[in-house]
Specification:
Layout: H1 2-9, H2 15-20, H3 23-35, H4 40-45, H5 55-58, H6 63-76, H7 87-96, H8 101-130, H9 132-142, H10 145-156, H11 160-189, E1 195-196, H12 199-226, H13 234-261, H14 284-316, H15 320-332, H16 334-345, H17 349-378, H18 388-404, E2 409-410, H19 412-430, E3 440-441, E4 447-448, E5 455-456
Antiparallel strand pairs: 1-2, 3-4, 4-5
Helix pairs in contact: 7-8, 8-9, 8-14, 10-11, 10-14, 10-17, 11-15, 11-16, 11-17, 11-18, 11-19, 12-13, 12-17, 12-18, 13-17, 16-17, 18-19
Subcellular location: Vacuole membrane
Function: Vacuolar cation/proton exchanger (CAX). Translocates Ca(2+) and other metal ions into vacuoles using the proton gradient formed by H(+)-ATPase and H(+)-pyrophosphatase.
Main location: membrane
Length: about 450
Amino acid sequence: MEESQNNIENGIISDNYKGLLDNNHKEQWANNINGSRTPPQNMAASMVRKKSDPILVSNVRFQMLRSLLNNLQEVVLGTKLALLFPAIPLAIVADFYHFGRPWIFALSLLGLTPLAERVSFLTEQIAYFTGPTVGGLLNATCGNATEMIIALFALRQNKIDVVKYSLLGSILSNLLLVLGTSLLCGGLANLKKEQRYDRKQADVNSLLLLLGLLCHMLPLLFRYASGLNNPFATNTLQLSRISSIFMLIAYVAYIFFQLKTHRQFFESQEGDEDEEEEKPVIGFWSAFSWLVGMTIIIALLSEYVVGTIEAASNSWGISVTFISIILLPIVGNAAEHAGSIIFALKNKLDISLGVALGSASQISMFVVPLSVIVAWIMGVQMDLDFNLLETGSLAFTIIITAFTLQDGTSHYLKGVILFLCYIIIAACFFVDKIPMNETTVGNLGTVLEPSSGVLVA
């Protein structure tokens, strides 16, 4: 029995041990798994995972070697995105030998794709051992770890525009691209079925997004009301920092609402009862060690991305705005996007909505205000004023999404509308060639603010 417990800790759960479990143990394990409430982001990412064959490592004689091989099989080879892992050492080699900076940017971006999915997998594994509350908090914190790390490195290099654009792009991508393609594909695949979803979760996330939109709009409106002579006024910065604190408070209330008081709103996101029961495949400390290691690699690649984004922009002839708002979010969340579409094809819209709305709410109400607070600590003047064009795009995106989800039913036309909205916004930022941190003098002696179209007197 002691050897079997060690096997669980090391991530090796043999068929013999499963047979030793009595009914009480099985019931206790099932309660722990059901209580963890696997979030929709992790459920969507699980669609790109590959089931490993335990027979390949079960015949290894030494336990430590068997544990190591099992971890390598589950963590490195346990995803359909494993083909992109070679991009990680290639990016490091390219930086060490001073290859073209656009190549470093492209390889780093590709390397971040499987890492983002693996972080989701590892947090899910840890959640099996920590229980529902700690596991839920861990998933809520690490759900968009890639975006947070990129934002921190961009702040360290004082690239505030990259932070704002990348986080804005994540919100737009989740609400329009992910949700739109999911509703489109799901509607086409289920033409003869009525597609319905629980409105309660959609209403909660819509309220959070509207609160975040208010906090984004007030600094912009305040700047207009107080005059455009000083777009980075101290009062606007103070308002943004105060708003960020209250946004974080609202997000904490949302987590408490989701995990404690109103968990029934999110229970519909669970899979069907007849589906195979999920079990941990690696141990707690193994998952924790892998999580730390992959976070370090994500930090390294994020530094490469932030440091080479301007060079890639100049080389490819694409604005930094388009790369930050469109390309970064698509690549960073590719696994979740694919999983959301697959669940929509299976007519499981509650999970698809949980992926899109949950991730957008987390970016808007947690990552964005956290970036403002961290910038405040670092002495960087980052505010919530995302300029007119960006804030207007965000406002229309949230309003269109809220109208789309108001009746609790879905069809492919809704997906078409959301997807086309994303294409139009992407085209807008594609033609936006105004360099960041620069101003151009227009007619009548006015100054055009970069990337916003705001006329400054």
